[in-house]
Amino acid sequence: MPASAARLLLLLLWLSLSGWGLNARAQNPATDSLRRVLAHTPPDSARVLLLLELGRTYRASKPDSTMYLAQKAWQLARQLNFDKGRGRAQSMIGMVLRERGELPKAYANQRIALQISRQSHDPEGEAYSLNSLGNISLDLRQYPQAIEHYRASEALYRRLHRLPWVAGTLTNLGSCYEKLNQLDSALALQQRAETLIAQNLRPRLAVALALRNMGMVQARLGHSPEAFAYYRRALHETQATNDLRNRAMAHYHMALLFEQLHQPDSSLLHARHALRNAQAVSYRLTVMDAGALLARLYQARHRPDSAFHYQSLAGAARDSIYSPEKFQQLELLAFTEQQLQLRQRAQQAEQTARYQRAGLLGLLGVLLTVALVLGWANRRQRRANRLLNERNAQIEAQRNALDEALTEVRAVQAQLVAAEKWAFVGELSAGIANELQNPLAFMRKFADVSVGLLDHDSTTPTAGLEQQIMDGLKQNLHEISAHGQRASAIIADMLAHARPGPRQPVPTDLNALVAEYLRLAYQGAPGQQLTPAVELEVHFDPAVGTVAAVPQELGRAMLNLFANAFYAVRQHQQASGPGFQPQVSVQTRREGDSITVEVYDNGFGIPASVAERVFQPFFTTKPAGEGTGLGLSLAYDIITKGHQGTLTIETEEGKFTRFTVRLPA
To answer: Which PANTHER family does the UniProt record give (predicted)?
Structure first.
C-alpha cells in the first residue's frame, strides 16, 4: 500500500473517531497531536483533511486561526483538484464569516460549498453546508427557511448514521420552534437531542449548545430553576472545551433571565461576561444582544453615559450584521441564484428539445414512412418554442418586478434603521427629562421660599457687611430660580418632542388662532421697555376660513415663530440704538388649495452658512443661556409631520428674516 494511501486511511480513522460535525470542538489537547501529525504529512489530500480537523479545534476559541487553516486547506485542495476537501474548506470559511456577522459572504460561501459537495458526491459536506445555511437563516429570523435546511441536513446525517450530528440538527430545529413560540414542539425536539447527546458525547461543542438551548425553552415555559440548571451545566461544559462562543451565549441568556426576575445585579454580572467572551471571538450577534441588555440595565440605574456606551456597541454590531447594504447583498445573491435556476431549467428544456429533434431526424433517415410522425414532432417543437418564449417573457417580467421590489425594500430598510436609532434617542431623552423635572421644581420652590424669608428679615436693620451678604444671597437665589426656570423650559421642549401619538385635527379658525398667539407672544416678548415700540403689521385674509388642525400643537408652532421674530428685532434695537425702528409683520392668505402664513422681522437675519440648520434639534443662533435650540425644531415637526404642511426660511444677514408656513386648505 502506498505511503500516501496509508496516511489517508489513518486520517479517515481519526475523523471517524473525532467527528466531522455540526459543531467542531474547541481548542483541546488533540490540537497538539494534530499539529505534530501535520508537520510530517506531505501536501496531499490527507493534509487537506488534517488542516480542516486542526481548524475545527480552534473554532470556539481562536476563530482567526480556524479561518487561516481553512484558507490553506482550500488552496491546497484546489492545487490537487480535491473537490471534496475544497467544498469542506469553503464551508468552514463560511462558518467563520457567519460568526463574525458577515452574513452575505457567509451565505455565498455556503452556497458554493453546497454545490461543490453535491458535485463531488460528499453527503457529509453537503449536510454540514445545509446546517450552516440553516444557521444563517436563523440569524436572519427566516425560521421556515431555516427549518427546511435543518430538516434536509438531519435526513443526510441519519442516512450516514451520524447520531451526534443528528442531535445537533434537532437542537437547532428546537431553537427555530422556540423562536416561533411553538414551545411544545421545541421542548420535544430539545429532549430528543439531549437523549442522543447523552449516548454520544462527541463532539463536545454540541453538548454545550444543546444544554443552552434546553435552558432557553425552560425559561420560555416559566421554569426558572430548571433553566438556570441547564445554563450552569452549559457553562461547565464550555470550561472543559474552552468554548468562548457558547459560553458567551449561556451568560447572555442567564443575564436575560435574571433581568426578567428583577435581579439587576446578577443580570449585570452575566451580561458583562457575555459581552467580554463574545468580543474575544468576534461573535457579533451576542455582542449586539449583550450590549443592548447592558444599555437597558444602566439606563434603569440612571447612568446615561454607560447606557449610551453599551447602546453604541450594540448599534455598531447591529449595523455590521443587519445593515441595508448587507441585506441588499443577500437579496442580490438570492436573486442571482433564482436567475441561475431559471436559466438551468431553460437549458434543460432546450437540451430536451435538441434530443427530440435528433431522434426524429434519425428516425427519418431510417424510415421514410415516418413523415407523419415527423410533422407531428415539428408541431410539438413549435409549441415548445412558443412555451419557451412565453417563459422568457415571464422571466423578464419577474426580473422587472423584483427590481421594483428591491428598490422599495432598500427604502424601507433605511427608514427602519433610522427610526430604530431615533426611537432609542427619544426614549432615552424622555426618561432623563422626566427624572429631572421633580428636582428642578423643588430647586425653584426652595429658592423662592428662601427669597421670601430674606425679604421678611430685611425689615430688621442690619450692619453694612451683613446687609451686603444678605443682598448677595438674594441675588444668588434669583439666579438659581432663573436658571432652574430655563432648565424646565428645555425639559418641557424635550418632552414635547418625545410626546407620542398624533392628536385628532378639528376645524380651526386660522386667523383667530394666529391673532391669539401673536398677542401672547407680544405680551411675553422681552425688552418691552425699549423705545421706539415694535411696529406690528397684521394682514389677515378673510378668505382663509377654517383649516383642519390640532389647535394646541399649531398654536405652539406659531408662538415659537412669533417669539423668535420679537427676540430678533429687540436684539437689533439694542445693538443699533433708538434710531432703529423694529418691525414685525404677520399676514395670512389663501393661495388655491393651500393657506400661507408669513412671519417677517427686520432683525439681524441669519448667516447663510447656518440657515439650513435652524430646524435641527438643539441648534440655536442665540447666545449661551438664552435659547434651548428646540423651538424651531418643534415647530417644524408640528407643521410638516403633524399637519402635512411646509415650513421654509428666507433670510439676509443684517436685514431681515421671513418664515413661511404653508398648510393644506
So the answer is: SENSOR HISTIDINE KINASE, TWO-COMPONENT SENSOR PPRA
pLDDT tens-digit readout, 369-398: 777 777 787 888 888 788 888 888 888 888
CA pseudo-torsion sign 473, 474, 475, 478: positive
Is residue 52 within 8 Å of 92, Cβ to Cβ?
Answer: yes
Query: What pLDDT sits at residue 659?
Result: 93
Closest-CA residue to 458 (of 447, 448, 468):
468
Q: What percent of the chain has pLDDT over 70?
A: 77
Ranking 28-42, 92-106, 306-320 by mean pLDDT, the lowest is: 28-42
Summarize pLDDT for 499-525 with one digit per residue, the tens.
Answer: 555 567 889 899 999 998 888 788 766
Three-state secondary structure of 360-396 = HHHHHHHCHHHHHHHHHHHHHHHHHHHHHHHHHHHHH
Which 8-state DSSP code applies to residue 459? T
Question: d(Cα 94, Cα 106) in Å, to the nearest integer?
Answer: 4
Q: Tens digit of pLDDT for each residue in 636-650?
A: 888 988 888 999 999
**Angstrom distance (rounded) from CA 558 to CA 521:** 9
28, 126, 284 from 240: Cα distances, Å:
8, 30, 23
For residues 91 and 73, give the distance between their C-alpha atoms in angstroms, rounded to a whole number: 11
Burial of 284 (0-12, 13-18, 19+ CB in 10 A): buried
Q: How far apart are CA 551 and CA 516, in angstroms?
A: 11
* Alpha-carbon separation of residue 64 from 37, 73, 450, 490, 491 (angstroms): 21, 14, 66, 50, 49
Amino acid occupying residue 201: L
Mean pLDDT, all residues of the chain = 79
Tell if the pTM clears 0.70, that is, is over it.
no
Q: Distance (Å, rounded) from C-alpha 254 to C-alpha 269?
A: 10
Confirm if 553 and 642 have CB atoms less than 8 A apart. Answer: yes
* CB within 8 Å of 443: residues ≥ 6 apart: 480, 484
Beta-carbon contacts of 542 under 8 Å, excluding residues fewer than 6 positions away, are: 511
**Amino acid sitting at position 521:** A
- Segment 449-460 mean pLDDT: 66
Q: 52: closest CA among 41, 195, 325?
A: 41
Instruction: Specify the 3-state DSSP secondary structure of 647.
Output: strand
CA 91 vs. chain centroid, Å, equals 27
pLDDT, tens digit, 9 for 90 and up, residues 250-293 = 999 999 999 999 999 999 999 899 899 988 888 888 888 888 99
- Amino acid, res. 173: L
C-alpha grid cell, residue 95:
462558518
Cell, residue 13? 480513522
